[in-house]
Amino acid sequence: MKIDFKPWEKCFKGKIPPNDMEIIFLGTSHAVPTKEKNQTSILIRYGSEGILVDCGEGTQRQFKIAGISPTKITKILITHWHGDHILGLPGLLQTLALGNYSKTLEIYGPRGTKEFMKFMLEMFIFKEKIKVNVHEISEGTFFENKDFYLEAKRMKHQAPCLAYSLVEKNKFKIDMNKLKKAGFKEGPWLKELQQGKDGKVDGKKIEVKKFTNEIVGKKISFILDTAINDNCYKISENADLLISEACFLKTEEVLASERDHLTAEQIALVAKKSKVKKLILTHISQRYDKREKIVLEEAKKIFKNSELAKDFMKIEI
User: Fold this and answer.
1) Helices vs. strands in the chain: H and E counts, helices first
2) pTM above 0.90, yes or no
3) pLDDT at 33
4) 20 an active-site residue?
């Protein structure tokens, strides 16, 4: 896993190979934007997919600054319908409509998402200009294809709220030398081995485990706005990367609980217990503006492999 702090103009060019992912932070602020940070929005680039997690105010401008076309977006995952996580949607949808967006945009979110999106699409007259499918989800797997699946867990917040994970499926790399030594030739049946299934040639069974190397898929989890709860651990379990809010320090734990947010210590404990490989802290309260390192230091005391998110930071996985 590589965290890239290069100037943004060098970070976003070129296509992403099918087995690689990029996580791009388009906004890392808390409730309001600052001079340095826009409101929350995170883009996952994976093959032909562009998955946007939340869409804070000004997200379409962040795309412009980063040199990324918003038309690359295929899905939007809404964690909850508080303004700092969704106020960028009208502008982004307008940009897509004016940019002749030809795909069908898939939008997923918690209870209330269909009603909010219906109002938004009608208010800004997008219905005739852009195709949008809106999905209201609760928990479990809500999207799956041959490469990955998306899952959700309910969080504890002042509005219906979800945490998300993108889980890449395991892949099987065929060892052609072993096949040749065993006297097997290439053929259409190799697709079965690539899918992790036993193959069959001339009535003879070929066991996938004998002729392939299994490549374990990656898991990326997102927790944005919640009080600590059991699902924080479940959604994060064995994640290669956990991106989470760390709104407060332990000294404000009572305030964090009252406002349904996490402290840096709490999410670091989640990362440790859930066997996460890397933790990225974001959505930190403005009360720590200019001294966010104290939030990172609190997390690092428990989970050393922690970092602070910055606008336009890119992570290659």
Assistant:
1) 11, 19
2) no
3) 92
4) no
Which of 217, 218, 223, 246 has its CA nearest to residue 236? 223
Q: What is the pLDDT of residues 12-57, one digit of tens each?
A: 344 445 558 999 999 999 999 998 999 999 999 999 999 999 999 9
Residue carrying structure tokens 């651990």: 233
Contact (Cβ atoms closer than 8 angstroms) between residue 257 and residue 275:
no
Tokens of 228: 């600590």
Residues 24/26/30/33 CA torsion (nearest 10 deg): 160
Q: Give the 3-state secondary structure of residue 97.
A: helix
Q: Please answer whether residues 254 and 284 qualify as being in contact, where contact means their C-beta atoms are separated by less than 8 angstroms.
A: no
Strand segments, DSSP code E, in 28-137 are: 41-46, 49-53, 75-77, 104-109, 131-136
Q: Which of 4, 20, 84, 240 is catalytic?
A: 84
* Tens digits of residue pLDDT in 155-201: 999 999 999 999 999 887 776 777 676 666 666 656 666 666 666 66
Q: Does domain 2-169+278-286+306-316 have CATH number 1.20.200.10?
A: no
- Domain spans of the chain? 2-169+278-286+306-316, 172-213
**Token pair for residue 139?**
């928990």
Q: 72 φ, ψ to 5°?
A: -75, -15
CA distances (Å), 254 to each of 32, 158, 225, 251, 262, in order? 22, 16, 15, 8, 10
- Nearest-CA neighbor of 59 among 80, 76, 40, 74? 40
CA distance 155 to 140: 13
Tokens of 236: 């994060």
